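Run log, item B.
One chain of 263 residues. Sequence copied directly from the ordering sheet:
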Amino acid sequence: MDFAFGNYVEGTSVIHKMNPTLKILLFFIIFIIILFIKHIYTYLIILFLVSTAGMFLKLPVKKLFYSIRYFIWLLLFTVFFNFFMVPGKVIFTFYSLNGTYEGLLTGTYYGLRIIVIMFFAGIFAMVTSPEELENAIVVLLKPFSLFKFPVGETSFMFSLTLRFVPIISEETRRIITAQKLRGAKFEGNLTERIKSLSTVLIPLIYSLFKRADEIANVMESRFVNPHEIVVETKKIKKVDFVYFFTGNLLIFVLFLADRFIGR
């Protein structure tokens, strides 16, 4: 399976062992700070550092980069939209549309932002198991239980959703292989590709609904009440706070460097 997003990779690194609640808070803070980065080279530095750290932790970083190709349409749309819509020095003209140098820089900037965010999301999924994510969601949503919010049910739903990501990837690959053996062609012009994709989407949707129905039947046969699901939470250790504040310090230093160099 060449799709890396949503796949947990077992490991013994400090990030793997970190308390899931602080881990999800750390990644959330990183996402927020990433949105305030102003320069392209800062994104490149972050991408390089995270890639190096990922390889040091023995994570499939190459597969993660390779998986970004599935979202290439989003990146191309972002670059071309800004290229033709942002005013500035014209370097290319297509009918009545003017491509500008400033638009190219802006499109590259937002494209790199998307890649960095996707990369961090992939790393987070690799170092956080569905059980840990469920645990973290329970802790973070626990205050809402005072308002009779179904914390256990919500965390269980998120856990199942995350588990379905690699299943969808594997099922899609299997269906495409089966359709190719039956003579389906996924190459050619846009119209032909859309017609070929319809032969994949319908079986995929049917398969996912079937799996969801099987899970519901298993839960019902075991008398599982989704409204009474209780998830045991992990205690936060002192070393978890050390990892948490170290991670925040590193990303904050990059943020300050981005602001200082831009002056």
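Observations after the first pass:
- The chain has two domains: 1-128+235-263, 130-232.
- The mean pLDDT is 79.
Flagged for discussion on Thursday.
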